[in-house]
Design a protein that fits this description.
Blueprint (H helix, E strand, L loop, with lengths): L1 E7 L6 H4 L9 H16 L7 E12 L8 E12 L2 E10 L2 E14 L9
Antiparallel strand pairs: 1-3, 2-5, 3-4, 4-5
Protein name: Fluoroacetyl-CoA-specific thioesterase-like domain-containing protein
InterPro entries: FlK, FlK-like_dom, HotDog_dom_sf
C-alpha cells in the first residue's frame, strides 16, 4: 500500500522556529512531523474506533534544504503490518527533487487508556 500527501513548508516547520537550526528552511524535526502525519493517516482506516497509532521509531536522511513556502510531497509505502505494528519506507520530494528518505514504525494504542500511562 502506498500513500502520498503534499504539505507546505510554513513557519512552524522551519529549523529556526523549532530550535534545530538558525535558518528559516524546512527543519529535520518539521520534516519528521510531516512524515509521521502521513503515515498516521495512511493507516487510520485500518483502526477500530477507540484506536490510534503512535510513532515508535524513525530513521531519516535529510539530503537537501527546502525553502519557506515549498510544497513537500511525502510518499510512504507500508512495508509490513503485523498485529499492532506498522513499518513504512518513505521519500520526501520538493518538486522533483528528492530531499529525504527513511523508514518509520508506528504501533496501535488504545485512545482511551494511552494517556493513563503517562501518570
Amino acid at each position: 500500500m502506498t500513500f502520498s500527501t503534499t504539505l507546505e513548508v510554513t513557519k512552524k516547520y522551519t529549523a529556526k522556529e523549532l530550535g534545530s537550526g538558525t535558518f528559516a528552511v524546512l527543519g529535520t524535526p518539521g520534516l519528521i512531523a510531516m512524515v509521521e502525519n502521513v503515515c498516521m493517516n495512511a493507516v487510520a482506516q485500518k483502526l477500530e474506533k477507540d484506536e490510534t497509532t503512535v510513532g515508535l521509531a524513525i530513521n531519516i536522511k535529510h539530503l537537501k534544504p527546502s525553502a519557506l513556502g515549498a510544497l513537500i510531497t511525502i510518499k510512504v509505502e507500508l512495508k509490513e503490518c503485523e498485529k499492532k505494528h506498522f513499518e513504512f519506507d518513505y521519500q520526501a520530494f520538493d518538486g522533483e527533487k528528492l530531499i529525504a528518505t527513511g523508514s518509520h514504525s508506528r504501533v496501535i494504542v488504545n485512545s482511551l487508556t494511552f494517556m493513563e500511562r503517562t501518570n
